[in-house]
Amino acid sequence: MATFIPKGKNGPVVIKSLNSNQISDAYRDRLVISYQFIESCVPTIAFPFGDRVLNTPVMVGPIGGFDRVSEAGTLGAARATAEAGSIFWTGFHNKTEWTEILKAGVPAVRVIKPLKDNKRLLEEIAFDTENGAAGYAMDIDHGLTVYGELDAQQEQFSPKTVADFRLLSEASPLPFFLKGVVSVHDALLAAEAGVTGIVISGHNNRFPCAVPPLKILPKIREAVGDRLQILVDGGLNTGYEVFKALALGADGVLSARGMLAAYSKEGPDGLTQHILEVTAELKGAMGNTGSPDLKHINRESVILL
Ligand SMILES: Cc1cc2nc3c(=O)[nH]c(=O)nc-3n(C[C@H](O)[C@H](O)[C@H](O)COP(=O)(O)O)c2cc1C
User: Fold this and answer.
1) Buried b / exposed e across 138-154, counting CB within 10 Å, b at 16+?
2) Residue 110 is assigned to a structural domain of this protein
3) Contact status, residue 104 vs residue 134, Cβ threshold 8 Å
4) Interatomic CA distance for residues 209 and 15, integer angstroms
5) Is the CB of 301 under 6 A from ligand 1?
């Protein structure tokens, strides 16, 4: 009996109709802004994150490569993000880099993989808590591979339950986010587990034919109400795209590939300026849609063509 040998880690993503990034970008681009100018005002932007207040709801999403594109490395990118009044999210791959960021006192969030062993997870969460992380997260879409087998990278991963998430949430006073939610089902279970929030994310085309994050976002917001802080990512590279997400019900966004590109092109100053530019564009979209602050984004102002 033959066994199936996967050609690549992420499966058959070269087939266009299966490419979730393309499906998601096409949906994003069909959303347009209905501006309104009468009785408009200059908006204010203050984004609550845990016990901090940030200057922007746009944070740098976890993505590898900051160490390869600038001499200032990943720590330089984290510092540049803090310069813009934002927070740097990073992956689970490099504990040395992560320790450097924490030692430097730069506010950052680490996305921990769904390790099978909860004891190991509790150790990592204790490390983050004791060393001043701004929060912690888990990319829940890594329990199984795209082919439905248990996933692993150095350590064994596994799908997690509501009871697991409750345990991990109660292990630290820091904000805890589940990244990779793309269904009302998972959002409701996240709320039941008592986590701080979720990141609605397709994880860079990890699964074929996935619903666009911006399409499922309003349904998730309706289902969970204010029980969760909702972040979203996936091709949100300008302030106008960020505004679309906020108008559809998100509290904030992550941007990964766009931030890496800005860092690659112009280093730390370029990354800081990019975050400030996206935030300025967002402020423009807010002011000219009658959205005075992040809590009062005009939900009627985004229309699907
Ligand atoms: C090269 C690469 C590495 C990534 N590594 C991680 C990771 O370690 N953890 C994680 O949660 N997401 C990771 N992601 C997913 C991103 O955080 C993000 O969810 C995705 O790229 C969509 O956002 P974007 O369109 O702003 O890039 C990675 C994405 C890319 C392209």
Assistant:
1) bbbbbbebbeeeebeee
2) yes
3) no
4) 10
5) no
Read off the CATH number of the domain in which 188 is found.
3.20.20.70
**Which single residue is written with the structure tokens 């397709």?**
202
- Give 38 Cα–ligand 1 centroid separation in angstroms: 40
Of 99, 129, 124, residue with least CA distance to 112 = 124
CA distance 184 to 213: 11
Q: What domain range is 162 assigned to?
A: 19-304
Question: In the numeric block, which tokens belong to residue 251?
Answer: 């509290």
Answer for the pair 79, 106: CB distance below 8 angstroms, yes or no.
yes
How far does residue 139's CA lie from ligand 1's centre (Å)? 10
- Collapsed DSSP state (helix, strand, coil) of residue 144: strand
Beta 155-156 vs 152-153: how paired, if at all? antiparallel
CA-to-CA distance for 305 and 303, rounded, in angstroms? 6
Number of domains in the chain: 1
* Residue with tokens 């540049």, as numbered in its chain: 80
Question: What is the distance in A from the centroid of ligand 1 to the CA of 250?
Answer: 18
Residue 7 lies in a domain: no
The residue whose CB lies within 8 Å of the most ligand 1 atoms, and thus the one to mutate among 204, 232, 254, is 204
**Do 232 and 201 form a contact (C-beta atoms < 8 A)?**
yes
Identify which has the larger pLDDT, 11 or 256: 256
Q: How far is the CA of 104 from the CAs of 25, 31, 108, 238, in angstroms?
A: 36, 40, 11, 29
Average pLDDT over residues 224-237: 98
Tens-digit pLDDT profile for residues 173-208: 999 999 999 999 999 999 999 999 999 999 999 999
